[in-house]
């Protein structure tokens, strides 16, 4: 059920459970909880459910075969069908910017509304339990030319293709690190783009060092094979242990330089090779989107690829009682794992709220499945951890912070001459990470540069506002004038 | 082999409509965002940066990077990758960007 402005919804408040994020994890969590008898609100920024993986064209685009851009579409159509049959209140176009625990132990969820959150009607939802399923965003590492139009996130190109049926160019190099690159290259090629190369900074050999995790996850192995054959069919060469170290062009991409990398990701001299293209889709894995939880003080864990995920107990609860998390917020592991964790969290929430023991057979099965998939995710994550040598790609005038246009030279100066040792100090000295994206795009790079080759402290995901909020919205809260019923999307 | 994304998913969209970008006519499909409509017309940049005056457009594609800020019907700082295109929308290149109305 998608809420419309005319519906009297306030009487359902407080909800038993508010779920933030309607991707694989949040959808599975919301429908499971509703099927177990809880009153559930499901909030997502997007007009449609599905999250990043099951992103699909708006109905007006009339896609007869949306599944052509996804494997395992049936898992999504099952969840979507269950959502439609449930009495979950689906609040589309809700951008959650803060979650607060009230004195009586319930949660207040604050959201701005509209396609990009600029509608004048803020929303406020109350719930007894909270499930964070906010997914991840793409990790980026800067290199000369990465701000030129035509350089886009690899996941971003995938997202624009899946939702808008468009491509950033005709000849698209796919580069960076992580299994997502293979999926992106396959879909770009299937959608008619030429993909002259997939350029992967890591080797895939490290996977082979963990044969047990591979054998225990036949679905993942099959998925990789599927992408592999699609790439073969489209004759897309995959270059391992290589990186795009420079993009050429004046006002848009004209070519890229690809270099071989040593084990530390340092470009090997004399290996540079130019590839003509009109777009570059680049990304270095995903970063869990957890600021709503870390702002509340939730404990985190360092993941094998150097990012931070939420530290969760065996039933998906964070260190804050009453706050659960599922999917990429606990570490990147794919849509199947997200679904499993969403269901597990919902069952744990239901057991808590309904005063039952959370020990039935289904829970045991979900836990086993989760542990198996998490083990595989950790192998993957370790294999694609950036080597410290990527910093050699930078020239001093390469913008590291895209928003504030702060070059690598200024950051190096802040570290070498002014003694900055962490991303926070660099930010205060240079403004890197202070712009609109709040350091999401440059955070990894700044932390690495500040660590001077040592182990980078993952940038702490503490953002007082998870999404930008108009001053007028904040002012209206102060005056106690915020409309307590959620605004329409 | 499918030649276009629309072929791939067998898209049978509602009738297309026009928007403008800096006065130039651009055809959009219903259900596309402003960024998707511009990409569809081969336009990759619709903002210039405040310091360097450099061109920028959509980067993350999912509302996280704020590189795609555009002026839509006179209103600045709209994330083009999120805002749906509507018939007659006038998109104009946004020069620089301000923090005037949002707090981050
Ligand atoms: C850009 C991108 C593209 C990807 N493409 C692929 C792919 O092609 N193939 C693949 O195997 N994997 C892909 N992934 C990985 C994919 O995200 C996971 O496999 C899977 O989607 C995880 O499910 P989830 O439910 O944890 O998160 P998601 O599916 O990411 O769902 C999270 C949801 O939370 C919402 N949300 C986040 N913050 C807020 C907030 N503050 N307020 C309200 N709602 C919020 C988001 O809008 C989103 O719908 C991609 C990831 C990204 C970031
Ligand atoms: S492309 Fe990143 S916010 Fe729109």
Outline the secondary-structure elements.
The complex is a heterodimer of chains A (489) and B (104).
Chain A: E1 15-20, H1 24-35, E2 40-43, H2 73-85, E3 89-91, E4 94-101, E5 107-113, E6 123-132, E7 136-138, E8 151-153, H3 154-164, E9 172-177, H4 180-190, E10 198-200, H5 205-208, H6 211-215, H7 218-233, E11 238-239, E12 242-248, E13 255-260, E14 273-276, E15 279-284, E16 286-288, H8 291-294, E17 300-302, E18 308-310, E19 323-325, H9 335-354, H10 361-383, E20 399-401, E21 406-407, H11 408-416, H12 423-430, H13 443-451, E22 469-470, H14 471-478
Helix pairs in contact in A: 1-2, 1-9, 3-4, 4-7, 9-10
Chain B: H1 5-8, E1 17-21, E2 24-28, H2 34-40, E3 47-48, E4 55-56, E5 69-72, E6 75-79, E7 90-92, E8 94-95, E9 102-103
Parallel strand pairs in B: 1-7, 3-8
Antiparallel strand pairs in B: 1-2, 3-4, 5-6, 5-7
Bound molecules: flavin-adenine dinucleotide and FE2/S2 (inorganic) cluster.
């Amino acid at each position: 059920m998608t809420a419309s402005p005319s519906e009297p919804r306030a009487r359902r408040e407080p909800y038993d459970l508010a779920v933030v994020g309607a991707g694989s994890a949040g959808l599975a969590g919301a429908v499971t909880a509703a099927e177990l008898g809880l009153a559930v609100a499901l909030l997502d920024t997007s007009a449609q459910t599905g999250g990043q993986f099951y992103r699909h064209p708006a109905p007006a685009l009339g896609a007869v075969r949306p599944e052509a851009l996804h494997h395992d579409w049936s898992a999504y159509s099952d969840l979507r069908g269950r959502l439609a049959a449930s009495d979950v209140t689906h609040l589309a176009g809700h951008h959650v910017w803060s979650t607060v625990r009230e004195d009586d132990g319930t949660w207040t969820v604050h959201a701005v509304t509209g396609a990009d959150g600029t509608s004048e009607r803020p929303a406020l939802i109350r719930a007894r339990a909270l499930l964070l399923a906010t997914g991840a965003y793409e990790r980026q590492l800067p290199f000369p030319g990465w701000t030129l139009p035509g350089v886009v996130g690899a996941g971003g190109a995938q997202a624009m293709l899946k939702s808008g049926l468009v491509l950033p160019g005709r000849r698209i190099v796919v580069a960076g690190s992580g299994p997502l690159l293979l999926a992106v290259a396959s879909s770009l090629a299937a959608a008619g783009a030429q993909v002259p190369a997939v350029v992967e900074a890591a080797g895939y050999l490290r996977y082979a060092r963990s044969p047990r995790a591979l054998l225990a996850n036949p679905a993942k192995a099959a998925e990789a094979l599927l992408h592999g054959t699609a790439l073969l069919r489209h004759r897309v060469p995959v270059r391992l242990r290589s990186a795009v170290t420079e993009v050429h062009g004046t006002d848009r991409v004209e070519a890229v330089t690809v270099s071989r990398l040593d084990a530390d990701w340092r470009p090997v001299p004399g290996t540079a090779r130019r590839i003509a293209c009109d777009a570059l889709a680049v990304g270095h894995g995903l970063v869990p989107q957890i600021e709503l939880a870390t702002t509340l003080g939730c404990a985190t864990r360092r993941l094998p690829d150097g990012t931070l995920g939420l530290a969760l107990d065996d039933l998906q609860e964070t260190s804050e009682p009453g706050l659960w998390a599922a999917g990429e917020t606990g570490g990147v592991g794919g849509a199947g794992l997200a679904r499993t964790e969403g269901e597990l969290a919902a069952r744990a929430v239901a057991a808590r709220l309904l005063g039952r023991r959370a020990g039935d057979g289904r829970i045991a099965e979900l836990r086993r499945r989760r542990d198996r998939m998490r083990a595989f995710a950790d192998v993957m994550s370790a294999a694609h951890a950036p080597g410290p040598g990527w910093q050699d790609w930078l020239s001093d005038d390469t913008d590291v912070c895209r928003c504030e246009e702060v070059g690598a030279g200024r950051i190096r100066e802040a570290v070498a001459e002014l003694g900055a040792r962490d991303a926070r100090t660099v930010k205060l000295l240079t403004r890197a990470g202070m712009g609109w994206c709040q350091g999401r795009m440059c955070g990894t790079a700044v932390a690495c540069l500040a660590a001077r080759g040592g182990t980078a402290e993952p940038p702490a995901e503490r953002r007082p506002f998870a999404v930008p909020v108009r001053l007028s919205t904040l002012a209206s809260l102060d005056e106690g004038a915020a409309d307590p019923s959620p605004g329409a999307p | 082999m499918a030649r276009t994304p629309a072929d791939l998913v067998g898209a049978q969209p509602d009738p297309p409509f026009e928007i403008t970008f800096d006065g130039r006519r651009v055809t959009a499909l219903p259900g596309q965002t402003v960024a998707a409509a511009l990409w569809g017309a081969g336009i990759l940049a619709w903002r210039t940066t405040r310091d360097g005056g450099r061109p920028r457009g959509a980067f993350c594609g999912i509302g996280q990077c704020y590189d795609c800020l555009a002026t839509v019907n006179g209103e600045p700082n709209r994330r083009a990758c999120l805002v749906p295109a509507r018939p007659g929308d006038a998109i104009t290149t946004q020069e620089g960007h301000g923090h005037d109305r949002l707090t981050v």
